[in-house]
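hiii so my PI (J.) wants the whole complex modelled not just the main chain, which honestly fair. so below is everything: two entries, each one labled with what it is. i double checked the lines twice but i was tired so who knows lol
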Amino acid sequence: MELFELGIEGLKTLLDKKEVTPREVLDSVFSRIDAVEERVKAYVTLTREKAEEMLAAGNTGVLSGIPIAVKDNMCTKGIRTTCSSKILENFIAPYESTVTERLAKAGSVFTGKTNLDEFAMGSSTENSAFFTTKNPWDLGRIPGGSSGGSAAAVASGECAAALGSDTGGSIRQPASLCGVVGLKPTYGRVSRYGLVAFASSLDQIGPITKTVKDAAIMLNIMAGRDPLDSTSAPVPVPDFTKAAGMDVKGIRVGIPKEYFIEGMDPEVEKAVKDAVKKMESIGAIPVEVSLPHTGYAVATYYILATSEASSNLARYDGVKYGFRAGGKDLLDTYLQTRAQGFGPEVKRRIMLGTYALSAGYYEAYYGRAQQVRTLIKRDFEEAFKAADVIATPTSPTAAFKIGEKSADPLQMYLSDIFTISINLAGLPGISIPCGFTGGGLPIGLQLIGRHFDEETVIRAAHAYEQSTEWHKKRPSL
Amino acid sequence: MSTIKFETVIGLEVHAQLLTESKIFCGCSTKFGLPPNSQTCPVCTGMPGSLPVLNEKALLFTIKTGLATNCSISPFSRFARKNYFYPDLPKGYQISQYELPVCEHGHVDINAGEGTRRIGITRIHIEEDAGKNIHEGAGPYSFVDLNRAGVPLMEIVSEPDLRNPKEASAYMRKLRAILRYIGVCDGNMEQGSLRCDANISVRPEGSTRFGTKVELKNMNSFKFVEKALEYEVKRQISAIKNGEPIFQETRLWDTVTGTTQSMRSKEEAHDYRYFPEPDLVPFMPAKEWVEDIRSAIPELPDARRERFISDYGLPEYDAELLTSEKALAEWFEETLKLGAQPKAASNWIMGELMRLFNEDGISIEESPMTPAGLVELLKLIDAGTISGKIAKTVFEDMYKSRKTAAEIIKEKGLVQISGTEELGAVIDQVISSNPGETERCRAGEEKLFGFFVGQVMKATKGKGNPAVINELLKKKLAGQ
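here's the output for the full assembly
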């Protein structure tokens, strides 16, 4: 096995035993990048120099010498942060995000900044202003999104692990489509300081990794109260790696009846149902639960997320930083800058959100959506009385072809149908590999937990993962 | 012509810059007058990914203000985003408050000459200030200075309870006094740390419906508040009398022309698309904390004024003026501690001291005169060492030279002449030098008595004791 194929745990074992050096690990990953990146196109910016500096700094810690890729919507001092948008194409942040700072302190080395749908708005990376990342399992297909670059980089061995951000499924859906693990922590578990905001009440940073244990190792470092983020929760951070290793005997796995909808890909449905059976066989107890407001989730999400986005993206006005189109006066400069700087999907969402917040419409849209959000939260509270984790498909289909849905935004929005409720409710969720389609495309199982109960999620995910071989499969590139 | 009488309805929105050392959502300094953009960071310049963290002091100051103006403190309050584009607004939205402000339902009492009137306070909320656009020296461009962006502001919204421009100005003064007493705002209108917008309408007297309101901006002194409102009252009444409509609009006070000019109509008004700020958690001030803040509130102007009247026997006018500034009231009370008689001290402060302050354009905090200095002077007057008239000169001298009264009196030889021998000689001299006047006076032309007093004063360079002079002069003119 090549070093670049290994995840965090695998590399740590070899590094700790001094069987390999951090230099060899980094070289292996960068030769892998040299070999496949041209085809996968996971990275917007490769940071070989930065990685060398970090290696030379030799920070010792849990992640010492581990090559990690960072989604390009997290600020990194001195390295451009583009959000895959023309408007920030040359933006270099003067400060470091809390999460990358913590990872750097723990000794990891950054391989680069990965591609995403512009401002994390999308499910395929097709909305990147630069290029579409390819799914390593089938280069004619999308890797999912918005953290498609990170998921593809992990799946193709172009890093040991990566950071993603998840507003409506943007960690879990690409993880599912690329056959890797993606964990969205509870809202408030990980600091958002330095994460370029899409929808502030939904955004959350999480790890994309090769195994559940790796996700737990990353979360240990990333989690915890940050005085720079008022919404980061002052709750204790347990050792998540301890949960990866406990059995699932007596764990109740809830199956929401509303999630196994008509029109779902039968191969996906079968894989997920088989996964639940597998969990039952190792001691878990399947129970049926109901999430009655599921049908409203997509509409609710697209009102709240776009409303917040319309405000969050107002700062890109050509005045202070980023792209500026010189107009004949102030208004013209605003109009030209934003018309030329933003792509069509970002503009669509800004317009939707602006409309939803407008005088006379606010109550009917934003106000109503907030109420439904509360109901969706309550659905989960109710369901978690009967279940300890809830199991669903991560995505209704496996990876689709590049261009297949890009003409139909509504179809694209529906590919997040199983993931967005979890953001609305602020819950932790993980996607883990649970099989392949006949065509050899990965399928993901989503496990959802109670607020701040990532431990049970990790415990169940790890126990299932260890009882299967899915996570050991790698795409042939 | 119609003879309908009109009533004016005014509500004020007062913006007060809070005296915190750092900005409301970041650690940058709030210092004024530093090089452009030197007091900035990723948060207050709206960098992508930066997040606000509330400066608790700003919240504390706002609660303190609420308590000092009889507001109830909301048990649950949160921030909202006010969205609009402008170069001095780096995030494209202002973090403010909308439907759940920190304080509500308060009042302050004012007296604008028609007895005490209670003015309701609708709400007090906190928000961040914007930066400043600079057009001078920028050639074809404009510059933006973000030093002020993120400085904490409090917006105090009154009920439409004010009935004339004088009341509006009295209300502003009362608010300013309270804010300065509790130390949350320096109240400097010229520098913009206290600003005010007004909503003003007129209606026929007796009507219960409000007229169409106009918003007035850009009034950066008490004088301009009054003038702008007076102008607007006249403009609106004359428009109605001429059968012209009043438009709901925003108008700017123009200091140069002394008029108000339309800035934007209701149709052009922004839709601010307020919604709850997701980057900040709602706050629930603990009851104990609020009580701690309450117990730290000092005696306020109204209470102090009443105490000055009842304890020191001061007239209401004196008490009102002396308590309008905390430092002034303290200055006054310090003179009493040192033994001054209240009304005498009050007269000197309101007369000579204020006159000199006005001439120099300074405030009590910068006074070169100390309470001890005034008391020294008062004691010298009481002892008859100097005359009241000379005392005024000495006072001004003390103020300007910062010397003690004794030093000045000694240097300039200003000790009062009270000796009957010395004064008698001067009077004799005056009588003999003015035989004609002496004769007329003795013949009953009494108004000439003043002439003799003046001559004696002149001869003694004002140092003669007036009482002794009067007595001696009467005797001597009577030929005794």
